[in-house]
Amino acid sequence: MDNVLADFDSEFGKRWKERHPEQSDFDLSQRKYFELEDNFPDEEKEEAIALMSEEGFFLSFPPVQDAIESCKEMVREGLDVRICSAPLPFQWESCVKEKYLWVRRYLGEDFLQRLMIVRDKTLVKGTVLIDDKPQVQGMVKHPEWKHVVFTQPYNLHRQGVIRMNRWSEWRQVLIPLLLQ
Questions:
Q1: Catalytic residue numbers?
Q2: 1, 13, 79, 138: which has the highest count of C-beta atoms within 10 A?
């Protein structure tokens, strides 16, 4: 959900710059590591985690471009769309609640039944998992779904994977996988 449907990085960047106007060149568009706090020097990691832990943080994310309309189109066209999201391990209390509120706000009440909050996505059944994590690992070594990497700067090092660069590509990327 984060950085696939909901623009986590833009909200984090906005809040970080408000706290650190001296870092006017702060930019997450080239971040190297999936775990956001790993992109910071040791002396700033705790502050980054604290920012992500603030009440209201997850609810404040704007949607990723074309994500909302694309999800609704997929459902209208008969696809069984599920939103699979992992809560932050250090801040799950309001994170989980806010993910539900975010889905209701942007996708509507009907989509709440499609939201699955899980720490281990390999346990989820499905055909395709669209995720920004470079490699989704967990208890199941070979999940039944195909991982479609939603392109972000921190996953560009992954070669030879199925990618979706933007939501406007969903038909070209997903339909062939669903027909296999």
A1: 2
A2: 1
